[in-house]
Amino acid sequence: MLVNAVRLPVAEAAKQPPSQSTSQSALSECVSRTVRRYLADIGDAECSEGLHAMVLREVEGPLLREVMAFHEGNQSRAATALGINRATLRKKLAIYGLL
């Protein structure tokens, strides 16, 4: 079941590849749009750390911050929501300076 799923307007859906034209979550669409814009901006230039690593780094910090805020700083509940171990969450929070 998709949570926070949205249907793209017909004109927008027509621009999407066939596998994406039916229904795409709002988060997925946001990531797709942002990555397309980033790739258009950089052209053929290479990302020094690799695009995958850069996207994960850019997304993980805000994700952790928002989930921690939603769970009012409760690391156990945040870890459960994220599907990770509490020790792993603490390690990631330290990396991003969120402790």
Please name the defining characteristics of this protein.
99 residues; mainly alpha; globular; disordered N terminus
Structural notes for this entry:
By secondary structure, the protein is mainly alpha-helical. 62% of the residues lie in helices and 4% in strands. It contains five helices and two strands. The protein has helices at 10-15, 26-42, 51-70, 75-82, 86-95; strands spanning 5-6, 24-25. A two-stranded antiparallel ribbon has the order 1-2. It is globular, with a radius of gyration of 17 Å. Residues 1-8 have low confidence and may be disordered.
Can you count the beta strands? 2
H/E order of the elements?
EHEHHHH
Mean pLDDT: 82
Strand content: under 5%
The assigned structural class equals mainly alpha
Strand order of the largest sheet: 1-2
Spatial shape? globular
Q: What low-confidence regions span 5 or more consecutive residues with pLDDT below 50?
A: 1-8
In DSSP terms (H or I, runs of 4 or more residues), the helix count works out at 5
How far apart are the first and last residues' alpha carbons, in Å?
A: 33 Å
